[in-house]
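Entry 12.
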Amino acid sequence: MFLFTAACGLLAGLPARAADTTSQEVQRLRAQLEAQMKVSQAIQARLDALEAREATDAKASADTKVQAEQVAAQAATQAKTIAKLEASGGENGSFTMAGGRPTFTAFGGKGTLQIGLQAQFDAAAYFEDNASVKRSGVDLGDGVNARRIRIPFVFRYGDLTATVTPDFGGSPDGRQNSQYLYEANLAYMPFKGFTAALGYLQPNISLQDAPSSNDFMFMERPAIMDVERNIAAGDARAAVGARYYQDRFFVSGFLTGQAYGGQSTTTATSTVGGSGSVTTAISTTQPSNGQQTGAVMRVAGRPLYGEDYDIHLGFSGSKVFSMNQNDGNRLAQNIALSVQPELRVDANKLINTGSMPATGIYTWNPELGLRYQNFLIQGEYVEIGVNRQHQASAGLGGSTQTPDLTFSGAYVDASWIITGETRGYQTARGGFGGLKVAHPFDPGTGDWGAFELVARYSDINLNSHVQRFLAQSVTGGVAGGRQDVIGLGLNWYPNDHLKFMADYQIVDVDKLSGATLQNQTGLRYQAVGFRAQVAY
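Predicted 3D structure (tokens):
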């Protein structure tokens, strides 16, 4: 009975367990189905979102395409308008202030005419040593001077540039030979960095001659540099040549002739007598029968440079092959070297070689410059050689050799821009230029422009084969004199177009005179100079 009862119980219990197991499986499958349905719903929702986004993107793309087509149409219309304006500009012209200069545009925008201005008004006072005034016989005069009044007219058409610049200033007011031309030339610039030029221009020579006169540290160049540049280069020099530059180098070469206005109508006719003596007659009717010809070259660059520094090296030179011949028989070929002090109010030239018979003349000078941030120092040495003829006392063609002459000079000057601007390196000129005023003068904002302190020492020696107490006829030398200048200056730049300069100089001129060079006729003095400048 026990076993039977147990078996019945076991048999009765089997269907209940099977039913329980089935129910659990159903619940598990339902749970899985619900989970899968949730995943499916999430996927469907994501799919719906993607489809909506795709539709939105497609609409945005379509809208953007329409906008692009509209902009293209507007650009085409604007281009047609510009073309019409340019075409009308060729007939009627247009006017702008490009680069701060009045600029007229014509010829369909291909031609422009710019008109500029450079005006420098100087004042100076001289304080001489009384003893040196008495022995020299020179009393320098205080006063004023319109140093430069230049009005450049620059016409550009394509790669051609024609420039004509009259100059109504000078040293002193107005040029002494009544010639009022600074430049008149034609330049061709087929690609960046290269310029070929022809006409009256300023051939490139020396580091000091590289910047515009608007950007000078002092009111004038060092005296030796003015002497060198006026031999075969300088302002308004008849020349033809080219220059080429890149970031690291600058090279130029020019064949040069006479300076504008230098062809004299007053000539000398010389004849040689039987004893070798020369007789000279002056005529005011014969024109010059042979103008000076020469050459000027310059190689310069900055082998090392960066944002905070520039190192400049260079070499310049010039050679006069044929002297200006103002002699009917081409016997007298003379040259004279002289220079005013490094202010241009008083016109006295304190050192002067006088007229020297010569067959040729040459110059050479190395250049060195260094800029570190807002500090700049630069300097050059110049040597001038004069080749002369054989002479026997008063005649030509004798047995005594008149020695060739050598003159020299040097300078070093420095600039410190107190307000932090820098004198940037101008690759197109191969040297250091001016500065851009960071904060132009404006009392309302407390800005005062830029301030610069400068200092210079310069020396020029126009003595050659000179010995005191020995006549020049014995040594064959020339006692032109020697001049040393120590200069200090302060420059104020209210903005990029205005500049005010104040210079102080200590000048010592050593000059011998007399039959045996026994007399000291030099001059010692101090001077102050001021300049007001406007340029655009």
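Annotation: Residues 1-20, 265-287, 392-400 have pLDDT under 50 and may be disordered. The first strand starts at residue 94 and ends at 96.
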